[in-house]
Amino acid sequence: MAVRTRTPDNGRHPVADAERDALLRDPYPRYAEAREAPGLTFLPEMDAWLVSRDADVREVLRRPGDFSSANALRGGHVPPPAVLAELARGLGGSPVVVTSDGAAHQRYRAPLVRGLSPARVAAIAPYVAERAEALIAGFAQTGRVELIGAYARRLPGEVIGRLLGLDPEDVPVAVEASYRAEELFFQPGGEREKVAAAREVVALQHLLDGYARRRRDDPRDDLCTEVVQALAPGHGPLTAEQRSELVSNLQNLLIAGHLTTTALIGTAVLHLLEHPARWDLVRKRPDLIPAVVEECARYDAPVQAFHRLTTRPVTLGGTDLPAGAAVLVAYGSANRDGERHERPDEFDVTRAARRHVAFGHGAHACPGAQLAREQVRITLETLARLLPGLRLDPDRPVVMAPTLIHRSPEELHLIW
Prior knowledge:
- With 416 residues, the protein is α+β, with helices and mostly antiparallel strands.
- It has helices at residues 17-25, 28-36, 54-62, 81-87, 102-115, 118-139, 147-152, 154-164, 171-186, 191-217, 223-231, 240-274, 276-284, 289-299, 331-334, 369-386, and strands at residues 41-43, 48-51, 67-68, 144-146, 305-310, 314-316, 319-321, 326-330, 391-392, 413-415.
- The longest helix is centred in the middle third of the chain and has 35 residues, at 240-274.
């Protein structure tokens, strides 16, 4: 017998910003409550039904025809008119791989799978190791560092920039604009700050448009060319529609290609250093690091949740949902489900790797997962070798960013 839960009103529920902020910074208590409750739990903070159990999350991800990705990147903040006017000066707004279904999804996904193939990841690994060592060596003599700004944002940005084929001088601008895009739709802020962020996003779109048009005329062995040739085959000038589609997908690839890895580096180092014995064991046993990377992703998934929209009436987890119902598919909660993982709330550096959903599952599994894993692995190996005495700064408490899209410490102050 299905548990019938009241369908929410079409309008937003009036929820205090403080309650939403608390949920975004630490969703795990709500996840635990939802996994124990019958049926699905409605989250007024997110205006969506929370899909919290591993089996239900996997069911949603296996049924893209019933659970559309059209609202996957639905943000919690509607931009004011001044921001929308600024964004209208750009070239984005077209569907991308994470917001599309069916044949369109496969079309957008194909060049990413080719461009982020195991061979491509293996080929760029020496560059990742070189840059990791150089960045860490740059602050190794200081005795302290704020890791997110000095390293975690820089390494993945440089790596995806190189894969895309961006000129080195354009990478810092592109990385910074990527964070402004996330802030624009997923974090609170005043109108002046939002307008400024929109300007940076528009500038990034025009930068990527220039790359797309140049790769049309002069193909190279990079991800930008891969995307251009897949989505706009042929010759001659790109149409306005093609330019918008290319810019949207290149921007999505850029953002997904580094923000997720930045987040995972931050949480991995945080949880390893929360108990010094963990770090000491990993430092002495670097052979554990590949499995530790999986445990880091399972324990605190970098992408906590994506939205989905039902395309027809369905029953999920014992709850009847109408067509058009918004569900929040919580990877972070599924990875703490005791039905799937033993001692799910324990971070165990000796845990044998078991399949989790931190990088998605099914048709929407992250094509860049192996690249992210490689960067975190190299980071931990390099930190263990160059900074074996690494510790959290006890005078600088860690505050998590208020987002479920890229869960990470806002800052991570370390000493040694």
